[in-house]
Amino acid sequence: MAGPGYGYGMQGAAADPYAALGAQGLGKPYGAIDAKGSADPYGAYGAVGAVAYDAGGFASQKPMMGGMGEDKGTFLRGRRRRMNVQPLFLSVLVPWVLFSVLYAVLSFSIHYEAPVLCFGIVAAGFLAVVLVGVLALSASGRWFANAEREPTWLKFMFLAGLLAFFAAYVLGSGNYGSNMERYYNMRNLNNYTGVSPAQMRGQQLMDAGIVQFAAGTKLDLSKSNGFKNNNVYCVAPITLGDTPLATYDFWVVGKNCCSGSQPDFHCANFNNPHANGGLRLMSDNDRPFYRLAVQEAEASYNIKAVHPLFFEWSVEPMTTVEGWRQTGVSEYLVW
After folding, report:
1. How many CB atoms sit inside 10 A of residue 194's CB?
2. How far is Cα 242 from Cα 334, in angstroms, rounded to an integer?
3. Fewer Cβ within 10 Å of end Cβ, the chain: N or C?
4. Alpha helices (H) along 146-214
5. Spatial contact of 168 and 103, defined as CB atoms under 8 Å apart
6. Considering only CA atoms, which of 294, 321, 78 is closest in space to residue 211?
7. What is the helix, strand, coil percentage profile of the chain, to 5?
8. pTM of the predicted model as reported, rounded to 2 decimal places
C-alpha cells in the first residue's frame, strides 16, 4: 500500500498527485502523468495559445489562466493623432494680420498726423510677438513632461510673427519716406496757379506747396550756380521774359546736376518747354546749402533774392504728387 498522495490506490487506479491542484485551474509540471498514463507536454504553464474549456466541456473564448495571455497592445493599430486645424489657421492668420496692420500704420496718415500713436501701435505689436515667444517656450517645458502637448504651432507663430514685424517695419518705413511723407507734405500746403515771378514775391507764397507758374515762365540758366559740400547743390532762377527782375525769389534746385564752377545747370526738366510748375523743396537738411548757392549767385551776377523759395521743376506738378500717393498705395497692396 503506497503512501498518501503517491503511488496507486487499492483498486489499481493511478493516483494523480496533482488532481487537487488541477481542480484549482493549475496545470501539471512538464512530464507529469495524467490519469490515462500519458505525459502532459505543457506542464504547469499550459499550452501557448491553447483553448480553455469550461465545466461543460465547451471551448471558452477566454485564454487559459496558465497561458501566456493576450497582449492586446502589441497587435492593435496605434490611434492616429488628429490635426488641430484651428491653431494651424491662427499660426498663419495672426502673422499676416500683424504685418498688414503695422505696414499700414507705418505707411499712411497715422504716421504723419500722430507719430506717437503710430509707434505706440508698433511697440504693442512687438510686445505681442514677444508674448507668443514666451508662451512657446513655456509650453516647451510642459512638452518634455507630456509629449502629446508639443506646442509646434506656437513656435511657428512666434517665428512667423517676428519675421512679419521686421518686414512690416522696414517696408512701411521705406514706403512712407519714399512716397507718402512728401505726398502729405504737399497736401498740407497751398496750391497756387498762374504765378508770375515778375509780380509775386517770396513772402506772398510762404505756404506754397505746388505752384503752377504763368505762361512764358522759364529758367534763366545764365544765372545758375552751384555750391559744393560733398554734393553739389545747384540753383537756377525762374524768370518771365527777358527783363531783369527786381528780386529773384523763385529758384529751381537740384543736386549734383551742375559743375558748381560755371553756369551749366542741367537738372530735371531744365530744357523741357512744357515744364512750368514747381514742387516745393521740403528737405530741411538741403535747404541751407541751396541758400548758400543763391547767395553766391547774388554776388556773382549782381542780383537780389530777398526771400528765395526753392522748387523742383515739373511738367504737371499735381499729377506728380498724386503719383506719389498711388505708388505708396500700390506698394502696400502688392504685399
Report:
1. 11
2. 49
3. N
4. 152-175, 181-188
5. yes
6. 321
7. 45, 15, 40
8. 0.67
Q: And the C-alpha cell for 288?
A: 541751407
Residue type at 295 in one-letter notation: Q
Calculate the CA 48 to chain-centre distance: 63
More confident residue, 227 or 50: 227
- CA dihedral (326, 327, 332, 333) in degrees, to 10, reads 60
Evaluate whether 104 touches 332 at the Cβ level (below 8 Å).
Answer: yes
Q: Which cell numbers in the block locate residue 285?
A: 537738411
Asked if residue 51 lies in contact with residue 59, where contact means CB atoms within 8 angstroms, the answer is yes
The owner of cell 485564454 is 63
CA neighbor of 290 nearest in space, from 224, 199, 192, 217: 224
Grid coordinates belonging to 105: 500704420
Question: C-alpha cell of 26?
Answer: 493549475
| Residue range 113-135, pLDDT digits in tens | 999 999 999 999 999 999 988 88
CB atoms within 10 A of CB 190: 13
Q: 129: part of which helix (H) or strand (E)?
A: helix 115-145
